[in-house]
Amino acid sequence: MSAPPPNPVPVAYQGGIPAVPVWLNKGDNAWQMIAATLVGLQSVPGLVILYGSVVKKKWAVNSAFMALYAFANVVLCWVIWGYKMSFGHKLLPFWGKAGPALGQNYLVNQALLPETTQYYGDGRVETAMITPFYPMASMVWFQCVFAAITLIILAGSVLGRMNIKAWMAFVPLWLTFSYTVGAFSLWGGGFLFHWGVMDYSGGYVIHLSSGIAGFTAAYWVGPRSKKDRERFPPNNVLLMLAGAGLLWMGWAGFNGGDPYSANVDSSMAVLNTNICAATSLLVWTWLDVIFFKKPSVIGAVQGMITGLVCITPGAGLVQGWAAIVFGILSGSVPWFTMMIVHKRWTLLQHIDDTLGVFHTHAIAGLLGGALTGLFAEPQLCDMFLPVANSRGAIYGGSGGIHFLKQLVGGAFIIGWNLVVTSIICVAINVVIPLRMTEEQLMIGDDAVHGEEAYALWGDGEKYDSTKHGAYSDDTSHNKASTGATQVV
């Protein structure tokens, strides 16, 4: 009896055992988990650091904690009911059926998005169901960190005055009634997905929705204290840059992970992301120098963010030269709306959007969605989109229709978030005040959390022995401090 022929596949790549089923692609799975981790690092510690440092010192702890709390809360809600509402079986054309994603039999099987099969009008299959070559557990976690960062971005609009208890109620409600709708509609097999609206990695699902919802929530919560609105300097610019750096580098997972595979389109998305971000940062900085005579570090970070946001809906769908066009416009259009329009439009001045999320995410996200409708390259579209022959308007054919679809898709996200966020805020305010008390607004972190970010005297004020006591914290030398500590 002859021996069986040797297996030509190396042992490391052989499947057929419980932990390595035949459908598992180890490379895809590794990249998907890395991409998810990169997106998670954008939030924790990325935006936790950025929020804690870009605000006035007295709000550093509260701002960082709002981001940290949102991340943890979303994780639990996501696996209990949120994932299946976003990527499970259809309940309504814009919403999936709620259910847990916790069972071993569900999580170790091959990932699939059950409502993503695209059909022709006569019932024939146009594009098969999305079935990546890794387990459902990787898919659930990857999509979870996207949901989490959306809430954290939204928080940027209400920093410095939203009641932390109201925020605790807001996070699960908004995730359930707003985020899941956008995610299912555009990504999970909802009506916009099958209609052909292009949102590669969240220009609409994440950035447009968080920008509009944040602006809406800022209206209902009300403004910061008068003193804070007049003067709100960052407490640590260098630490802010560290958070911004984590955000930028983490975007490789944000856009590079959305093909659900370590393929050529993923590489294209990562490169375009960095091209656009760099271009946008430079354009924003140049505009600051031209009009304000000085390059602003905060402005450069804003330009970086608008570039990252703008390319997101088309990261793997446009050519490299188009990414430069995206960057030029993302560095100039949101700059114009923030620096010029905002100061002249009463409505924008009336609503206190603390970090300007409306401009950096809503405007940049909508701009990116529209530009994707213009510049989406047909061959790249075929690599990713379910609707055959998708293309941008400059490529002729059905491109003009796709551009209009982009505008309609954006309008749906805007309208839904305006209405649902308003309902959520009004409902919460019946039970829990949305805004902090005047005493908390005056004192800041110490009143809200009983903690402060830095063990430094005052908030940009000189040492006053009648206010701070006769001695410093270190009483071993038994001398009173006579110097002044300036805190930015």
How is this structure best described in words?
By secondary structure, this protein is mostly helical. Helices cover 61% and strands 2% of the residues. It contains 19 helices and 4 strands. The chain has a two-stranded antiparallel sheet with strand order 1-2. A two-stranded antiparallel ribbon has the order 3-4. α1 packs parallel to α4 and α10 runs parallel beside α12.
Gross morphology is: globular
Distance between the termini: 83 Å
Outline the biggest β-sheet: 2 strands, antiparallel
Radius of gyration (Å): 24 Å
Count of individual helical segments? 19
SSE-based structural type = mainly alpha
Beta-strand portion reads under 5%
Helix content range of the residues, please?
A: 55-70%
- The residue-averaged pLDDT reads 91
Question: What pattern of helices and strands is seen along the backbone?
Answer: HHEEHEEHHHHHHHHHHHHHHHH
Total E-strand runs:
4
Widest sheet, order of strands = 1-2
* Unreliable residue runs: 470-488
Quaternary class: single chain
Subcellular location: Cell membrane; Membrane
Transmembrane segments: 30-52, 64-83, 139-159, 171-192, 204-222, 234-254, 266-285, 297-315, 321-342, 354-376, 407-432
Biased composition (Basic and acidic residues): 468-477
Region (Disordered): 468-488
